[in-house]
Amino acid sequence: MIEFIKRYFLAIPIGFFTTLKNMLRKPVTFQYPKEKVPMYPRYRGLHFLERYEDGTERCVCCGLCAAACPADAIFMEPEETEKGERKAKLYEINMLRCIFCGFCEEACPEEAIFLGKEYEFSDDDRSKFIYTKDDLLVKWPRTKPSAVNFIRKKRRPFME
């Protein structure tokens, strides 16, 4: 009988006390579309392709990012410019396959691909999750400086 009283009659005041205690606290929710949660420094979001300071593409289509990708989400096709330099004719990342591991970023010798802080990339059509080179390249001219701290600022000299 005492067990019955403890279980049912003490549960109601304990529940009311818990409710009152939490009603007086400051809310922890964000008003999402208006307020955005700051991302952690190590967060890996949507990919982007960087450019040199003169506006040319950094990617030379070496294929190391595609080889390093464990999910096989990167597809690329190279071409040569008039000067004989390599660049990516076709560069696609399938975000449905991507696991956001960052191996592509680590494998790139030209510091061309990075995982950004963008986390709002939902859609209702599966075909829109295949990002092309035009979608991934940083817009030029830049509106703000790059957040990336590059090891090599200038393009390697072309050997003829």
Provide structural commentary.
The protein is built from five helices and five strands. The strands form two sheets. A three-stranded antiparallel sheet has the order 2-3-5. The protein is an alpha+beta fold. The model has no long low-confidence stretch (mean pLDDT 88). The protein has a domain at 47-136: Alpha-Beta Plaits (2-Layer Sandwich). The longest helix is centred in the N-terminal third of the chain and has 13 residues, at 11-23. A hairpin with a 5-residue loop joins strand 2 (74-80) and strand 3.
Question: How many individual helices?
Answer: 5
Q: Return the structural class.
A: alpha+beta
Query: Sheet bearing the most strands, described?
Result: 3 strands, antiparallel
Distance between the termini: 95 Å
As for the CATH topology of the domain at 47-136, it is Alpha-Beta Plaits
What is the mean pLDDT?
88
CATH domain class name of the domain at 47-136: Alpha Beta
* Shape, per Cα inertia axes: elongated
Query: How many β-strands, per DSSP?
Result: 5
Report strand order across the widest sheet.
Answer: 2-3-5
* Beta-strand content bin: 15-25%
Q: CATH architecture of the domain at 47-136, please? A: 2-Layer Sandwich
Q: Report helical residue fraction.
A: 10-25%
Task: Give the C-alpha Rg.
Answer: 25 Å
List low-pLDDT spans.
none
| Helix and strand pattern | HHEHEEHEEH
